[in-house]
Write a sequence for this structure.
């Protein structure tokens, strides 16, 4: 699930549980109601500022609003809250990150094996 939809789903659930309307939420965030409604439907790009402010206003952690539901051991999902990639740059950056992580994990495994052999 993409960050925008994951954020919208989690925030809507919290608002529903707390009985807070979109208009009230917009006032709490000091944002335009139309903009907040677009955030709550997943039709707006979520920025790090919005995530942080939402976490503060709703008294939850940032992680709770954006964490991935993927289980460990599956493909890694990288959430980048400091800007947006275009799709080609994003795929390239993710592929490079996976490559580096896999190499690092391989080095750790080899180091562990060598220390067991000694």
């Amino acid at each position: 699930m993409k960050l925008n939809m994951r954020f919208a789903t989690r925030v809507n659930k919290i608002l529903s549980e707390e009985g807070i309307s979109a208009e009230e939420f917009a006032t709490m965030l000091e944002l335009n109601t139309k903009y907040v409604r677009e955030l709550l439907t997943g039709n707006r790009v979520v920025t790090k500022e919005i995530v942080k402010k939402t976490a503060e206003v709703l008294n939850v952690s940032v992680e709770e609003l954006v964490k991935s539901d993927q289980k460990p051991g599956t493909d890694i999902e990288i959430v980048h809250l400091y800007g947006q990639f275009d799709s080609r740059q994003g795929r390239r950056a993710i592929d490079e990150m996976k490559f580096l992580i896999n190499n690092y994990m391989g080095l750790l495994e080899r180091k562990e094996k060598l220390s067991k052999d000694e």
User: Anything to note?
Assistant: The first helix runs from residue 3 to 18. The radius of gyration is 19 Å. Residues 86 and 92 are 10 Å apart (CA to CA).
